[in-house]
TrEMBL record:
It comes from Pontibacter anaerobius. Pfam families: DUF3857, Transglut_core. Residues 277-365 form the Transglutaminase-like domain. This is DUF3857 domain-containing transglutaminase family protein. Residues 1-27 form the signal peptide. Keywords: Signal.
Length: 637
C-alpha cells in the first residue's frame, strides 16, 4: 500500500504541475492519460514554413517539451542542420524545473557549431548547431525556438508530430504559406482533422493541427511506425536548386530535372573507350559484357562521398572518376553507365531509398525521397541492377539494401518508377548438411556444411569482406547456435552470381550432443536450428501482421550412435502449414544411424490482424517439434 500511495502522490503532483504549465487548458484526465507510458510530452509545437519564391523560404520552429524520465532526455538537445543553401538566423532556449522555476537560458556560447560530415563522406558542406538543456531531476521542461532561411526549395516540411514511441503530444501544428496563385502539394495520413486553408494579402496558408495524442507502440511483426502516427508530406510543383530549375508535379518531371543535371557528364577519354572495347571483345552475351565492365569498375575505383552544393544531386563527370579512381554513389553509377555506353550496352541511372528495412517511398507523392543512386541495365529476360559503390558486390544483386522497393529511372524522357528485385524463399536459403559421430559420454565430432544464398548470405559476406581470420573465428563463436562447442577448423567459399551464395564449412567438437541417464541416451537431432522466439500476444491485435522477408531453411542431420544402443522412442513425422509458412520434420533410424530432416519455409506478405494468433500457434508448434528427442537404450550384455 505504501508503494501505491507514493506512486499515486507522484502522479498527482505531476498532474498538478502539468496543468500549471499547460500552454492551453486540457482536462485533468487528458493530461494523466498523456503521461501514462510516456517518456516525454510535447506540450506545444509550432512549425511554420513560408515560401517566398522558388529560391527562397523561411522555416520557423518552436517547441515546449516536458521530459518525464531519463529515456526522454534526448528531447532536451536541439539539432539544427544547415549548409551553404541554408542559414540559421536565430536559436533560443530555456529550461524549467518541476516547479516551473527557470533553470537555464541558452547563451550563444552554449550553442555548439560542428561539422555534420556523415561517416561515409570525406567532405560535405553540412554543419549542425547543437544546443542542450538536459537536466537530471524529473520532470523538467525545455523550450526551443529557431529560424532558418533556405535557398534550396526542393524540400518542404515532412511533418511527423509524434516521431517516436512513448511520446505524447498535447498540441502540435504545421503551417505552410505559399505565394498567392501557387499550388501546394501535400499528402496526409492518420490525421483526425484534415487541412484548413486560408489566406492573407500575400500567401495561401495551409494549416494542420493535432492534439491529445497518446503514446503509440508498434506491435510484434507490425507495420512501420510511420504508418501508425499522423503524417503530412508537403512539396512544391516548381523549385530551383543552385540555378537548376525543376518540377515535382510528376515523377516524369522530377526525372527530367535529374537528367538535366547528368547531361554531358558521361564522356570518357578515348584510350579508356578503346580499353573497354578490347576488354569486352570476346563477350558471348550482353550479361557477360556487363559483368566485365562492372568487374573493371570495381577494381579501378573506390567509394568516396563528397557532397557540396548541387553536388549533393549532380554526379562528377565520368572523366574525373576515370582519372581519380573515386566517387560517390552518383559519380560511380554515372561512370559505369558511361563505360557500358562505350561498349554498346544501354543502362539507366536510378535514384532509390536504400537501407535494410527502410520503408518504400510514397509513390503517390512525387518528391525527393531518395538517398542513393544505382544503375539499371535492362535485359531481354531480366533486369540487372548494379550497386556501383561496392568493390565486392555481385553484379545484378539488390539484396536487403536496395531490393523490393521502387526506384526512379532517369531517362531522356523523364522519370519512370520501377520495382527492384524481390527475392523469394527459394532464393533466400540456408541449406545445411551435418554429420555427427557420438561418443559414449554424449559428446561428438561434427562436420557441418551450410550453403547460404540471397539475403541469408549477407552476414557471411560481411564477415568475409570485413574481418580478419581471428575476428572471423570469434564471429562464428558468437553467431553459431549449437551445443557447447570448439571450432577445430572453418572455411568460407563464395560465389558471386545474380543470387550470390556463401558456403560455410565447420569442424566442431561438441561437448554435449546427447544426454545420458542410466542406460538411456537422449538425442535432440535438431542441433543447430532450434526456433526460440514467440511474440507476445495481446488480447486484441490492432494492426496488420507484416513479414518483410521470405526464406527457406533445410537441415539434414546424420548422427552415428555408439555401438550397443538400440532405439526405444522415435518421434513421429510432423507437418504444419499456415498462411505464414510451412514446416516439416522427420526422423529415421537405421541401425546406429539417425537421419533427421527439417524444412521450414516462411512467406513474405501482409496479413490481417486476426491472423496473429495463428502465427503464435505456428511458432509454438515449431518450438515443440524442434525439441523432440530420440531415445536409445543400452543393450543388456
Amino acid at each position: 500500500m505504501l508503494r501505491f500511495n507514493r506512486n499515486y502522490n507522484w502522479l498527482c503532483g505531476l498532474l498538478c504541475w502539468l496543468l500549471l504549465l499547460a500552454p492551453q487548458v486540457f482536462a485533468a484526465g487528458s493530461l494523466e492519460e498523456l503521461a501514462k507510458g510516456a517518456n516525454a510530452i510535447i506540450r506545444a509545437e509550432e512549425t511554420v514554413f513560408t515560401v517566398n519564391s522558388t529560391t527562397s523560404g523561411v522555416l520557423r520552429f518552436k517547441s515546449t517539451i516536458t521530459i518525464l524520465n531519463k529515456y526522454g532526455d534526448h528531447h532536451a538537445t536541439l539539432y539544427v542542420p544547415y549548409n551553404k543553401m541554408s542559414k540559421v538566423n536565430a536559436i533560443s532556449g530555456t529550461s524549467y524545473d518541476r516547479f516551473g522555476k527557470r533553470i537555464k537560458k541558452l547563451k550563444n556560447s552554449d550553442i555548439k557549431d560542428v561539422s555534420a560530415i556523415s561517416s561515409i563522406s570525406v567532405y560535405e558542406d553540412s554543419r549542425v548547431k547543437i544546443a542542450s538543456l538536459e537536466y537530471n531531476v524529473y520532470p523538467y521542461t525545455v523550450e526551443f525556438e529557431y529560424e532558418v532561411s533556405k535557398s534550396n526549395m526542393m524540400f518542404y516540411p515532412r511533418w511527423y508530430p509524434q516521431g517516436e514511441e512513448k511520446l505524447s503530444v498535447e498540441r502540435a501544428s504545421l503551417q505552410v504559406q505559399v505565394p498567392l496563385g501557387t499550388k501546394l502539394r501535400y499528402l496526409e495520413n492518420n490525421l483526425p482533422k484534415k487541412v484548413e486553408v486560408g489566406s492573407n494579402t500575400t500567401h495561401e496558408i495551409y494549416t494542420w493541427e493535432v492534439s491529445n495524442l497518446k503514446p503509440v507502440s508498434r506491435e510484434p511483426y507490425g507495420p512501420s511506425f510511420s504508418e501508425l502516427v499522423p503524417m503530412v508530406l508537403t512539396g512544391p510543383n516548381e523549385f530551383e536548386v543552385d540555378g537548376y530549375k525543376g518540377s515535382m508535379a510528376t515523377w516524369k518531371d522530377f526525372g527530367l530535372w535529374a537528367h538535366k543535371l547528368n547531361q554531358g557528364r558521361d564522356e570518357l577519354p578515348a584510350e579508356t573507350v578503346a580499353k573497354l572495347k578490347n576488354l569486352t571483345a570476346n563477350a558471348k552475351s550482353t550479361e557477360e559484357k556487363v559483368r566485365m565492365v562492372y568487374d573493371y569498375m570495381q577494381g579501378k575505383t573506390r567509394y568516396v562521398s563528397i557532397q557540396l552544393g548541387i553536388g549533393s544531386w549532380q554526379p562528377f563527370e565520368a572523366s574525373f572518376v576515370d582519372d581519380k579512381g573515386y566517387g560517390d554513389c552518383k559519380a560511380l553509377s554515372n561512370y559505369t553507365q558511361a563505360m557500358l555506353k562505350a561498349v554498346g550496352v544501354e543502362s539507366y541511372y536510378a535514384l532509390i531509398n536504400a537501407g535494410e528495412g527502410t520503408p518504400d517511398i510514397k509513390i503517390e507523392f512525387p518528391s525527393s525521397q531518395f538517398n542513393h543512386a544505382v544503375l539499371c541495365v535492362p535485359m531481354a529476360q531480366d533486369t540487372m541492377w548494379l550497386e556501383c559503390t561496392s568493390q565486392t558486390a555481385a553484379a545484378g544483386y539488390n539484396g536487403s539494401f536496395t531490393g523490393d522497393r521502387h526506384a526512379l529511372l532517369i531517362t531522356p524522357e523523364g522519370g519512370k518508377l520501377v520495382k527492384t528485385t524481390a527475392y523469394t524463399a527459394t532464393e533466400n536459403q540456408q541449406i545445411r548438411s551435418m554429420n555427427v559421430r557420438l561418443d559414449e559420454a554424449g559428446g561428438g565430432i561434427a562436420s557441418v556444411s551450410t550453403r547460404y544464398t540471397g539475403t541469408q548470405q549477407e552476414s557471411r559476406d560481411g564477415v568475409i569482406q570485413n574481418l580478419k581470420p581471428e575476428e572471423q573465428r570469434k564471429w562464428l563463436y558468437e553467431n553459431t547456435t549449437a551445443p557447447p562447442f570448439e571450432i577445430s577448423k572453418y572455411s568460407f567459399t563464395q560465389k558471386k552470381e545474380r543470387v550470390p551464395s556463401v558456403t560455410e564449412n565447420l569442424e566442431l567438437s561438441m561437448r554435449q550432443c546427447a544426454t545420458l541417464s542410466g542406460k538411456r541416451m537422449f538425442i535432440s537431432p535438431n542441433l543447430m536450428s532450434k526456433w526460440t522466439y514467440v511474440p507476445d500476444q495481446k488480447e486484441k491485435r490492432l494492426t496488420d501482421v507484416v513479414r518483410i522477408q521470405a526464406y527457406m531453411d533445410v537441415d539434414t542431420v546424420e548422427i552415428e550412435v555408439p555401438a550397443g544402443y538400440s532405439v526405444e522412442y522415435l518421434p513421429g513425422e510432423v507437418k504444419y502449414k499456415s498462411v505464414f509458412g510451412e514446416y516439416a520434420a522427420s526422423v529415421k533410424v537405421d541401425g546406429q544411424r539417425v537421419t533427421y530432416v527439417r524444412r521450414m519455409q516462411m512467406h513474405k506478405g501482409r496479413f490481417a490482424p486476426e491472423t496473429f494468433a495463428q502465427l503464435v500457434e505456428f511458432y509454438n508448434s515449431i518450438i515443440k517439434a524442434d525439441a523432440e528427442q530420440v531415445v536409445f537404450v543400452k543393450n543388456v550384455q
